[in-house]
Amino acid sequence: MSPHHLRFQQPPGVRGHRRSDVDHRVAIRSPLLDEFRMNRSKKWELRDMMGHVVEFSGDQHGSRFIQQKLETATSEERQLIFDEIVPQNALQLIQDVFGNYVIQKLFEHGTQIQKTILASTMEGHILPLSLQMYGCRVVQKAVEYILPEQQSTLVQELEASVIRCVKDANGNHVIQKLIERVPPERLAFLKAFKGNVYDLATHPYGCRVLQRCFEHLPEEYTRPLIDELHKHVNHLMQDQFGNYVVQFVLEHGKPEDRAIVVSKLRGQMLHMARHKFASNVCEKALTTADPESRRFLIEEIMTPRQDGVSPILTMMKDQFANYVLQRALSVVEGDQREALAAKVRPQLTNMRRYSSAYSKHLVAIERLLERCSPSASGEVTPKENAGTPTMSETLSSRQS
């Protein structure tokens, strides 16, 4: 989409661009900006555009030029740029498709006094800016460079609307940045997450915010959230977003929390392995469980059901469970390794003999079996691309 068709959301009392404004500014370029765009052979300097800094900042090429120059500008040059933007034009540029990058550079390269003054122009508008496509980027940058007192002011403005921010495509990034950068005792909005863990974990943006909490906050803040999560683990495993939160606990949580999640899989391995999203959790559990728990999980998929049907055969045929079987073959240890291989081999032979649907995942299983043979040397490694997705992703290719 052309930047001239982007819609600018204007917080109450905030000066910004509507679509017509963006289109209009092309028609009313100053002769200086026109010359800048046309005459690239001239050696332009920041002083050449004094009096036109705001216009240049809102232009694609002018903005890029100012950004580059601010990185090496003298303190006097930065002050001249700053004085043309702040305070009158700061909010306008913060929300601008090109201007927001200039504001970010002022936070990166300005003096602490300049950063404080610049951030003060945003006060009273933090919520609408956090929800705006370009403003949210500037708010995140401000969090990195302002002093703790101003960070607290920013947090206070978002406190009453934190759940709204968490569930917003732009606002969630601001909340994540605050969790990463601000001391937890200053994050008063954290109390709003209690009682809402299931709701957040099953939300495409909320699940990311929860993971940042578990990653960056100390135990006293995360324990109530994790305890609440344990109450919903069975359902979260099967949710398209919740499964990532459960995987995060398996990979980064305390041993006791990992053990609780693994215990929820006991007796349900086949069912969960065949589920589009829970299969990812099964794989992660096989990878992260302690040796004894892993042995129990693998034993479960080796044991025939009451009707005599082999879980292994069912898993080999299933589009999701076959990945769990591959993972089991890649992590199984000791005498259980050959026992599992002995149960898989005849099933694989029968499928090759009687089925025309000899798919790539059966080839992968066959290769893993070769490594499981007593004569094979070296460690068994997971099949490439058969692992669970990274936690920063929202959906894996398997889940699309």
Helix content: 55-70%
- The low-confidence runs, each spanning 5 or more residues with pLDDT under 50, are 1-16, 376-397
Mean pLDDT over all positions: 87
CATH superfamily of the largest domain: Leucine-rich Repeat Variant
Percentage of residues in DSSP E strands: under 5%
Work out the count of structural domains.
3
Order of helices and strands: HHHHHHHHHHHHHHHHHHHHHHHHHH
Per CATH, the class of the largest domain reads Mainly Alpha
Number of helices: 26
What's the CATH topology name of the largest domain?
A: Leucine-rich Repeat Variant
Please tally the β strands and state the result.
0
GO biological process, one term: nuclear-transcribed mRNA catabolic process, deadenylation-dependent decay
Subcellular location: Cytoplasm
Organism: Postia placenta MAD-698-R-SB12
Family: Belongs to the PUF3 family.
Which helices and strands, and how do they pair?
Elements: H1 19-27, H2 31-38, H3 53-57, H4 60-72, H5 75-85, H6 90-94, H7 99-109, H8 112-120, H9 126-130, H10 135-145, H11 148-159, H12 162-166, H13 171-181, H14 197-201, H15 206-216, H16 219-230, H17 233-237, H18 242-252, H19 255-265, H20 269-273, H21 278-288, H22 291-302, H23 311-317, H24 321-331, H25 334-354, H26 360-372
InterPro entries: ARM-like, ARM-type_fold, PUM-HD, Pumilio_RNA-bd, Pumilio_RNA-bd_rpt
GO biological process, one term: nuclear-transcribed mRNA catabolic process, deadenylation-dependent decay
Subcellular location: Cytoplasm
Task: Explain the overall architecture.
- The protein is built from 26 helices and no strands.
- It folds into three domains: 1-146, Leucine-rich Repeat Variant (Alpha Horseshoe), CATH 1.25.10; 147-231, no CATH class; 268-400, Alpha Horseshoe (Leucine-rich Repeat Variant), CATH 1.25.10.10.
- The chain has helices at 19-27, 31-38, 53-57, 60-72, 75-85, 90-94, 99-109, 112-120, 126-130, 135-145, 148-159, 162-166, 171-181, 197-201, 206-216, 219-230, 233-237, 242-252, 255-265, 269-273, 278-288, 291-302, 311-317, 321-331, 334-354, 360-372.
- By secondary structure, it is mostly helical.
- The two termini are 25 Å apart.
- Helix 25 runs antiparallel to helix 26 (360-372).
- Pumilio repeats lie at residues 48-83, 84-120, 121-156, 192-227, 228-263, 264-299, 300-342.
- It comes from Postia placenta MAD-698-R-SB12.
- Belongs to the PUF3 family.
